[in-house]
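Hello,

Our lab assistant flagged a job as stuck in the queue for most of the afternoon. It eventually completed. Since we weren't sure the result was trustworthy after the delay, we are filing this so someone can double-check. Below is the sequence as submitted and the structure that was eventually returned. Let us know if re-running is recommended.
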Amino acid sequence: MENAMKPSVGMLGLGIMGSAMSANLLQAGFEVIGFDVSAERLDAFAQTGGTPARSAREVAQQAGIIISVLPSVAALDEVVSGAEGILAAGRSDLILVEASTFPLEDKQRVHDRCRQCGVTVLDCPLSGTGAQAATKDLSVYASGDAAACTRCAPVFAGFARSQHYLGAFGNGSKMKFVANLLVAIHNVSAAEAFVLGMKSGLDAQQIYDVVGDGAGSSRMFQVRGPLMVRGEYEPATMKVEIWQKDMKIIGEFAARLGCPTPLLAASAAYYTAAMAQGRGGEDTAAVCAVFEEMARLERGPSGSSSN
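-- returned structure --
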C-alpha cells in the first residue's frame, strides 16, 4: 500500500503508549491526528510530525479510524460522549479502536452507546510496555466486528509486531487480563530472583545475561531486567500507580467468575509496597527495590551485595 493511499488515523491519548504508537504510525506513512488534554504532549506530538487537534470531535472530523489509549474510564466517556467528543462529530462511518485496559462492562457500555449512533467500537487491548511500543514490539488483541477489524489490520501493522483476531467483542479484554496476570507475576518473580542473586554476591548484569539465556527466563525478565540491573526506574514504561488499576480490574474480573488467582494476589502486595515507598511514578520494575530493602541489600559497584 502506497503512503498516499493510507487512511488518516486518529489517536486519543498521547501518553507513554499513544505517543510511541503515533511515532510508528507516522514512520509507516500514515497521517496521524492526535488529541490529549496535555498541551505539552500535543506540542511533543507536533514535533514528531503529527497533526494536533483541539478536541476528540476534531479528530473524528478528520480520521475514519480512531485509536484510544487512555488512563481512565472517565477519560473514555469524555472523549466519546462529551460535548467535544467523537459522537458530537455526527459521523456514522467511524471505527473506534479502544486499546486501553478497562473493566469489560465499561467498554461494553461505550460500545452500545456508539452503536446507537452508527459508530463501530472494537475492543483491542495491547500486550507490551511503553518501551516495547517505542520499538513496535506490541501485540494487538483484536475483538469485535470482523469486517472492521480487517479494515484496521493495516493500521495495526503500522504500530504492532503482531495482531490476533479473537472473535466477539470483549474477548480482547479477556485475553489481556490473562496476559497481564502473567506480567504481574513474572515481573515480581524476576525482581525476587535478581535480589537473591545480588544478595549472594553475583553481579546483576551477569544474572541478566546468564539466566536470560536459560529456562528460567521470561519476557518480563528480558524487558524489565535491564532496569533492575541498573536500579533505575525512570522514565517509566508502565507506572506502578497505573498498574495498580490494571491489577484491580483483573482481580475483580476473576472474582466475578469465581476463579482463584492466588499468585496474582501474592504479587499485588509488592506493588502496594512500591506505592508506599513513594515509587508510584516509577516503572513497575521498581518492585526490585522493594525486595532490596526487605533483604537489606546494599549494592556494590557491580550491582552485587556489598554486605
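-- support follow-up --
The delay was a queue issue, not a problem with the job. The result is valid. The first strand starts at residue 9 and ends at 12. The chain is about 50% helix and 10% strand.
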